[in-house]
Structure formats: structure tokens, C-alpha cells
């Protein structure tokens, strides 16, 4: 009986460490750099808070990257970008090539309001779970609820001046 | 030109067995068999209920796991055989009509064929989809949800759903397997086999999810491929058996395409010089015993009955050849029997059939 209990406890502890990433995104980001692709020229308050929360979860420094959406998608698929963010609605067409995170707040497109999400590389399930943990923290939920549609200027205005086709980093 | 064909409603009388009962309309069943049929029906209703709950649970947690999708589709398809069984059971007891003079006993065979075709098609699709995923190296994404204050990976919930999905079908499958053998019901047997083998599907699905958890992206597609191959194998085997039944093949064993030993038992019981042809209509066996192997009506009789379309008449069986000749104007040649070669008695409609049963 003891062995069974020990096995169960071991199994549960092991399960807490799972799932793993096939391409090792978590290992690359942990304690290092979180590369964030921006899909909007202006980063809203909620999205900014989300980036900060995710970076904190991995104890990583966020590096913002500005480029055209298709370039960012390609970078995400190759693993160069870890997170795509910026007024992404839950029904985004980009989700066919990327994995959606849990929702955090809402985004208004025209007359319609949609759940706000971010995107990560497909199949990186361990990374996605950690991102979801970060986006589920009470601070983010509260901020998302009160943020409304207010947007803030992007952290680095110089990035906005970069041509859309070229990837520009902003710290 | 519309013509009355020989056979038709008249065949009801021809089907009268030696004890005078009408064997074409609702063949009487022994009480024990009837009780087993009722029990099988109840089990099939339970199967539909449990599968319904499983399909809902699996559908809710399916996510984008291919193995889960394959298992879900298999569970969805598993509902076809019990539904077909219940429908066929209703239909096969219907009385013959003018349009369906032989009754509806083959409703079961048709149901069997349809469920086999559905299985084969879906199995083929699952295998194709799995291979495509492996070629394209698509990495399955399984998200997490907050549950009781914890972020829980959906893969664990999917595994729990898969575990639930194997328990009721496996229990019901073993119960139905025994009944299928008693009732000689191929739909029930197929259904029981699929249910009983459900644990393999569940295990493959769980292995695929465990593979994803350990970072092996290909594990999901491999598991889906294994499940698909199993579904395809079941479908093709059942298609083979059901096609033989629909083509008036000899009665087959429940679990293989081999001829049923009952055919040999009947043949062995016949006196020398008699020829036997046997076929299956649903769970029932129909045999034709002739002394002359030929049932060719001859051109003269065929022309008298069908004029230009005489070529369509390829087999005639009649209770009394001479009586029939006298009854048809212009056929009887006193010196020659136009019904030479016509089988005496029985229910023969096929000209080219397997003489060995």
C-alpha cells in the first residue's frame, strides 16, 4: 500500500512538471529573454501588463519586436519570437498557425467585443501552460477588467518609426 | 411494359415449410431466442445511452489532439451498429409487401454493410490524416484551464475522459458477444467486438497524450494512426463479410468470411443425388435443395412468360413443372417438357450461384 501511495505521489509530482516542450521554448526563455512580437502599433494597458506578467513568470527580460504580421508569424513558427500580442481577438485567423493562450480581458473590433488573447508557437505545451498561469494571475484579471479600451503609447516610439517589413527590436 | 414476374407474392406460398407455417413472414422464434433478442435490444439501448454520454464528454475536452479526435470519431461511429441493430430488428419483422415480396429479413445485412462501409471510410480518413500530420510535422497544441485554483493541463483531463470512454463499452461488449453467438447476429457481433476492443483505442489515445506530455509531438499522430488502422481493419473485414451476404453468398461465420459449418451439416444430412444451395437473409438461412442442378427455364417458357425480355428470366423453380406448363397457354408441347431442367420446389431465384453453397 505504501508503495502505491508513494508511486501516486511521485506520479503527481512528475505530472506537475509536465507537459514538456518539443522544441524547448521554456528552457530558452527561462531566466533569459522573452521575445514579444507586437501586432499593433500601440500596445494597450492590458497587453502591456500581460507581457510583464509572462516575463515575470519566466524570470526573463522582455524584448519587444515590431514587424509586419506575416513576418512575426514566420518568426513565431521558427521559434525566434516567443509571444505574439497586441489586441488579438479570440477569433483571429492567425490561430490556425499558432496556439492561443487563455483570454485576458476583451478587445473591441468595430461594434463587436471579443475575448483578448495572445499567441504562442504551436505544440509548445509546457510554455503555453506557464503563459496561461501568468495570464491568470489576479493582477492581470483585475487590470483586464478595468482597462476598458484605453490604450497606451507603445513603450518605445522609435519602434513605430521602423518600416513594417523589417523586424525591429525594442527594449 | 409491366409484367407480373413469377415468384412475387406467390412465393409466400412457396415458402410454406413442411409443417404448413408461413416461413417468409415473421418466422417464429423459440422463446429463448426471443428473450435473447429482447435482451440484446436492451443492451443496445444502454450502449447508445453510454456512448452518447461518452461522445459528449470527449467532445467537450477534445481540444486539438488528433488521437482524441480519432477516439471521439470512433466512439461516434460505434453508435452506428447498435442503432442499425435496433432499426434492423424492427424492419426484419415486417410483413412482406407487393413491392418487397420476400420480406425485410435482409435489413440486418444491409445495416451490417452500411455500418461496415462507414467504419472503413472513417478508418481510411483517420490513417490518411495521421500520415499527413506526420509528413507536415504539425505539433499538437493542448492548452490548460484553471481548475480549483490550479492551472491544469487539458491532456490530463483528456486522459480521464478516455478512461471513462473505455469502461462502459468494454463491459457491454462482453455481454453482447455472448448474445451475438446465440442469435447468429453479425451486426450485434460487430458491435460487441468494437466495444470489447475499445480499451485498445483508449490506451492508444492515452499513450498519444502521454507522448505529448513528454514532448514527443509525433506521439499523438502515431496514436491516431493506430486507432485509425484498427477502425479500417474492422471496417474492411466487415465489408467483406457483408458483401458476401448481400451477393447471396453462402452463410458465413460470425467472425470470419469462412462458410458457416451449419451449411455442411445440412449438406451431410441430405441423401445422395440432391444438390444444396444456401444463403443468408439476415440471421436466417434459406436453402434450396434440387435433384437437378439446373434451374434454367429454357427459352420456350421464358418467351411465353416475358416475350422480348425473355433473357431476363434466368431461373425458375416450380412446385409442379407439368401443372405450370399446362397453365401457360402456348407453352405445352405434349412431346416435350418445356420445364425440363426447372428445379422442383424450393425458393431459387439465382441462376449463377455457388453450387457448393
From TrEMBL, chain A:
<feature type="region of interest" description="Disordered">
    <location>
        <begin position="145"/>
        <end position="171"/>
    </location>
</feature>
<feature type="compositionally biased region" description="Low complexity">
    <location>
        <begin position="160"/>
        <end position="171"/>
    </location>
</feature>
<protein>
    <submittedName>
        <fullName>Uncharacterized protein</fullName>
    </submittedName>
</protein>
UniProtKB/TrEMBL annotation, chain B:
<dbReference type="GO" id="GO:0016020">
    <property type="term" value="C:membrane"/>
</dbReference>
<dbReference type="InterPro" id="IPR002524">
    <property type="entry name" value="Cation_efflux"/>
</dbReference>
<dbReference type="Pfam" id="PF01545">
    <property type="entry name" value="Cation_efflux"/>
</dbReference>
<dbReference type="GO" id="GO:0008324">
    <property type="term" value="F:monoatomic cation transmembrane transporter activity"/>
</dbReference>
<dbReference type="InterPro" id="IPR027469">
    <property type="entry name" value="Cation_efflux_TMD_sf"/>
</dbReference>
<feature type="domain" description="Cation efflux protein transmembrane">
    <location>
        <begin position="55"/>
        <end position="247"/>
    </location>
</feature>
<keyword id="KW-1133">Transmembrane helix</keyword>
<keyword id="KW-0813">Transport</keyword>
<keyword id="KW-0812">Transmembrane</keyword>
<dbReference type="InterPro" id="IPR050291">
    <property type="entry name" value="CDF_Transporter"/>
</dbReference>
<dbReference type="InterPro" id="IPR058533">
    <property type="entry name" value="Cation_efflux_TM"/>
</dbReference>
<comment type="similarity">
    <text>Belongs to the cation diffusion facilitator (CDF) transporter (TC 2.A.4) family.</text>
</comment>
<keyword id="KW-0472">Membrane</keyword>
<protein>
    <submittedName>
        <fullName>Cobalt transporter</fullName>
    </submittedName>
</protein>
